[in-house]
């Protein structure tokens, strides 16, 4: 099947570029961590949260809308690009003035100066939305990957040299500005966007309905994803937030770095078949199973190895994060599968369903967070998030399977039954070795990994699911 071949090729290219970037960033950040003070990173981290928000405002759902709409001609894309340029200027200026509020809220005038500089980062990031979307629409994943690797290495090296010369957090500021600038310039050159004369609002009207629902979903999702940190920091204190943040980000690491090589490819490839839902459904089921097979192993391993993972990564001072991480690790498999669903709503043109399921998901998630805050307990909050993610999985996939694909939800769930069988076998294996105590954390983590791998392999063999994985991996 051509769509499967394109998907597999795109995922492989994105995987290589993604992990090349991660490797480069690990080296660069390791050097910077030895040159800069934690306070330097903290100052930039605060303002980065707001940069993400303003970049989201500037996106307006335009990127996915361009990928989805196959009838847009060069003049119409040119008009959309002009519109995004105007929007980028307005939003960048808005970010600069908003930096005065940030300075007032944190009682530090440095944020005004940083806001003025980083407004250029906002400007170029929004300018790149259309060129980046054009490249993804043309499925030029390799070019996007190469651009990101080149920029990260070159700018990262420059950032290190600035840090060496004592520029402190300004080196991180220039890092953000230069990356957004160079990525925009290179993507603009690569996409060969032709700027036509004049301007017509008709092109914006053409994608308005689609992009509006996409923007509303992004807006709700942003606040849902950041509300826990805001409320924990406000009502439970900075140290409590530190324990939670370390646990959550560590749990999220496999979710982001495994699914982010798949989800950017799903929409551009599958949108080619937006009027052939059966093709999208058959391909997507394979994607879900791959994500679920990876996720169930990671979830169970992290749950039973929480002590080892936290102590190896952070040390004994972070032991309070262990129970939080253990509970949140249950959601890894759920989040890995859920992370792909947005691309399918986009590819099938049902962004209104993406928005409506996003609203319901926000209600579940916010309720869990507020309940935990009211009880002043991170354990209750974490358990609430597990329940929220389970409910989100049920309601999101129910809408997708029954309303979009018009198939049986029960039949869909039955296709995933073997994942539960494999998970149960892994749990059984860990229970059998629970009496074995190994004091060395690294040796214990390796031992549990081996036990998990053995029981996982047994599960794949018993359920015969290894055949599907072999077919997916080896298929040309």
From TrEMBL:
Recorded superkingdom: Bacteria
Chief site of localization: membrane
A GO cellular-component term linked to this record: plasma membrane
Topology of this chain in the membrane: Multi-pass membrane protein
Keyword tRNA processing among record annotations: no
Entry keyword set: Cell membrane, Membrane, Transmembrane, Transmembrane helix
Record-linked InterPro entries: Poly_Biosynth_Transport
The UniProt record lists the keyword Transmembrane helix: yes
Cell compartment(s), UniProt: Cell membrane
Membrane-spanning parts: 12-35, 41-62, 83-104, 110-134, 146-164, 170-191, 290-314, 320-342, 354-373, 379-400, 412-433, 445-463
Pfam families referenced in this protein's UniProt entry, alphabetically: Polysacc_synt_3 (PF13440)
UniProt family annotation: Belongs to the polysaccharide synthase family.
Stated name of the protein: Lipopolysaccharide biosynthesis protein
Organism: Clostridium beijerinckii (Clostridium MP)
